[in-house]
Design goal:
The protein has 355 residues and is α+β, with helices and mostly antiparallel strands. The chain is built from 14 helices and ten strands. The strands form three sheets. A five-stranded antiparallel β-sheet has the order 7-3-10-9-8, sandwiched between helices. GO terms for molecular function: DNA binding.
Length: 355
């Protein structure tokens, strides 16, 4: 099947106008669009028969589909991709919507988590979709690590960060572990990790164990690797990095039972934080809004949904999180893209200001 770019080049002026009007009408109504409806919407008078011929050509290109022989046409995923990339006109956020975004986010009260929760609530309310906010990683440097024996088969690794947080993990120590091996492992970790973040831990530990292998006996080396592994699951920012609001917006108005079940599966995945790393990866290819339609993003392919997502950055222009909106593939992209873009910019400034 032709790529969206080559398909757009294949469209003459009339075909492009019919295609544009059909997709815009579908995004407004959610219903198949017939030739008579399009005849009333086109700027130039064109017969319904001519429009039907154009629609057949567009269907041959893979841009349209017909749910029934006698029904109108719907844009395919390829057609929506073509429309979003080559035809969609994205305007600015309206004055009313800009004021609503700023009112919701620019309150002086609340820390960063409160700002991000308000951002998620505002986005779901303003777009009538479900909102996603991926919060920044916890990047506080490590201050101290210690191993504590609790018995022959139980031990604790305690981690203190520079911002004063203290966390611990319970684990089963290797057989034959001695107090001296625990001290040696803790001293080794503190020497190489002080001032580092959790995200840097695994790479530093692996490199230093290889470089300084002679300084550690086998038990101490096992303990060092165990301690790093216990904190590795937190190196992606922990289990509460994803805020989801507006689940009910996707469930409402979807009468088809199979569609409802796919949407429930989507949110079950989100609640379990499945593919969380992938969600941030979607934003890493550069600043700006990205639109994923249907199966273009495996996280949302089951639900037949679209995702409009944009990263937000700190003062050093480093991507630290993302905001987005999930909705049906017939989203009002022209309205939602600038809303997500403006929200991401404002969230970045506010989070940096409280960083």
């Amino acid at each position: 099947m032709a790529a969206p770019q080559s398909s757009l080049a294949d469209l003459n002026e009339r075909s492009r106008e019919v295609f544009r009007r059909l997709v815009e009408t579908y995004l407004d109504t959610g219903e198949p669009v017939g030739s008579r409806t399009l005849a009333r919407r086109l700027a130039e008078p064109v017969s319904a028969a001519t429009i039907r011929n154009v629609m057949q050509d567009l269907e041959h290109l893979g841009l349209l589909d017909s749910p029934h022989i006698s029904a109108g046409r719907l844009p395919t995923q390829l057609g929506l991709r073509l429309f979003v990339d080559g035809i969609l006109e994205v305007g600015d956020v309206s004055g009313t919507e800009r004021a609503e975004i700023e009112r919701s986010l620019s309150k002086n009260d609340g820390d960063v988590p409160a700002i991000l929760d308000r951002a998620a609530d505002m986005l779901s309310g303003l777009t009538h979709g479900a909102s996603l906010v991926l919060t920044p990683k916890t990047e506080a440097p490590i201050r101290h690590i210690e191993f504590v024996s609790l018995g022959p088969d139980r031990a604790l690794v305690v981690l203190v960060t520079a911002d004063g947080q203290v966390e611990n993990r319970l684990f089963t120590p290797p057989l034959g572990l001695t107090p001296s091996a625990m001290r040696q492992a803790a001293n080794f970790l503190n020497a190489i990790l002080q001032g580092r973040t959790l995200g840097e831990m695994r790479g530093v530990v692996d490199a230093e164990i290889t470089r300084r292998r002679a300084e550690l006996d086998e038990l101490s080396r096992t303990l060092v690797e165990t301690g790093a592994a216990l904190w590795e699951s937190d190196s992606d920012g922990g289990r509460d990095r994803l805020i989801v609001h507006g689940r009910s917006n996707l469930l409402e108005g979807n009468a088809d039972a199979s569609q409802l079940e796919r949407i429930r599966e989507l949110f079950d995945d989100l609640e379990r934080k499945r593919d969380l790393a992938q969600l941030l990866d979607l934003t890493q290819e550069g600043a700006g809004v990205r639109v994923f339609i249907g199966s273009e993003n495996k996280l949302f392919s089951l639900s037949g949904s679209s995702l409009v997502v944009s990263p937000y950055m700190n003062a050093d222009r480093k991507i630290i999180g993302a905001v987005g909106v999930i909705g049906p593939t017939r989203l009002n992209y022209g309205r939602i893209v600038p809303i997500v873009d403006y929200t991401a910019q404002l969230v970045g400034r506010l989070v940096s200001g409280r960083g």
